[in-house]
Amino acid sequence: MSTLKRFFKDTIIYGIAAVLPRAINILLVRLHTHTLTSDKYAENTIYFVYAAYFNAILTHGMETAFFRFFTKEKDKGKVVSTAFISLFTSTLFFLIIMLFYSNEIVKYFGFAKPIYFQILILVTTFDTLVVLPFAYLRAMNKPIKFTFYKILNISIYTLINLYFLLYVPYAIKNGYFVPQFISNHFEQNSLVIYIFIANLVASFITLLLLSPIFFKFKFTFDKKLLYKMLNYGLPIMIGSLAFVTNENLDKLLIPKYLGKDQMGIYAACYKLGVFMMLYVMAFRLGAEPFFFNHAKEKNAKETYATILNWFTIIGTIFLLIIIVFIDVFANMLLGKEEYFQALKIVPIILLANLFLGIYINLSVWYKLTDKTRYGMYFSVIGAIITIGFNIIFIPKIGYMASAWATLIAYIFMTVVSYFYGKKYYTIPYKIKNIALYLFLSTGFTYLSFSFFRGNLFISSLLVIIFVGFIMWNEKKEIQKILKNDY
């Protein structure tokens, strides 16, 4: 099998691991918006925002550092055990401190009850400890096992959600069987806690099932190796925190300026923009180990360029299709019309996430040259743009400011990374083609959303024209792929 085809095959399998859980999560939006008021939905959103921040801190860039040194070091077991001991120690310290002082700390996080914060700490701990087992499966090219555990995790989460948010209220109301312990303690007016409990149970079971991987290697600890891994990974951690800020600061600022109701409405529509994030995540899971494993091949740079070209092609088509059928998706996933008022953020968020995916492609240069500090610089500046734009413009134009801030930050990061990459690790990207596809897709998206929304005939015609142009423009590349020339 050709290098490129193997990459796409693995990415499709990883894509199932990334897309299916998130797709189910998106489907759960309908359940959550149906059963929770907008202010409670906002509380659910805030919970996962803080989870993202804690995970970025606790993993301290060790996942990417693991891939880098797993391919460089001869003693693979030493890399695994050193990384694990580092993560386990810091995470255990975090768990003890946070739980011990949880009643005092919780007031700074805005949760209604300390138990919400305590569940968050436990979930974050479990999720951090499974980072390396999942990374190991990716490094060993075991996408099927990786996918199995990811799907199992979301399946458990979904079943518990359905049980407590749908079955139990219905059963209590209609006299059907519910275990006495559950019926006696069931909180009808605080259903959000059962979403957190579902998250906790799913994370704990996943950790139990993956824990045997920890014992495949002799526990050895190498201080010098840890220093090198931390030196590589800490800038990535700072970049990750900046990324989480780009993605989530809006959910913390909108309640302050506009109220929890508006944030709940914004967050629900933001989920539609996550469709593009699913695509980006699927790509990242397959691309990260691929970039490191093939860095020494003669045609590596040409392969990276081809991957970005096709990533952009598929992403721009995806962008246009989602906008063409945006009302269909909104009715299917959001349900309540009170959430529809924020649909205008969706095209902007989709485009922002597409630029994020391009940026992840471009990041190969600083990861392979061990200049991860540049990724930190770009992300931090992007976060500053996000913070400044949100604080200045949310009071003036509402939650649209948050959508525009995300897009502007990712465009900036993409452009700057490209020009710096040319200096340190030149890759022959097809910039003219990429820019053309982005321009056409954005233009067609604007036409469909602003002038032909609801007119599926004309909007679908725009998709056909766009796809037809791509096939004509890329006919030589398509022939190469079909002939297995890559």
Chain-wise SSE layout:
Blueprint: H1 3-35, H2 38-59, H3 62-72, H4 76-100, H5 102-105, H6 114-129, H7 131-139, H8 143-174, H9 180-185, H10 192-210, H11 223-258, H12 260-293, H13 300-324, H14 326-333, H15 346-362, H16 364-368, H17 372-397, H18 400-424, H19 431-450, H20 456-473, H21 475-482
Quick overview:
The protein has 486 residues and is mostly helical.
Alpha-carbon distance between the two ends: 9 Å
Number of helical regions = 21
Strand content: under 5%
Radius of gyration: 23 Å
Helices and strands, in order, run as HHHHHHHHHHHHHHHHHHHHH
* Domain module count: 1
**What is the residue-averaged pLDDT?**
83
Which structural class fits the helix and strand makeup?
mainly alpha
Fraction of residues in helices? over 70%
Total strand segments:
0
Provide the low-confidence segments as ranges: none
Instruction: Sketch the major β-sheet.
Output: none
Give the overall shape.
Answer: globular
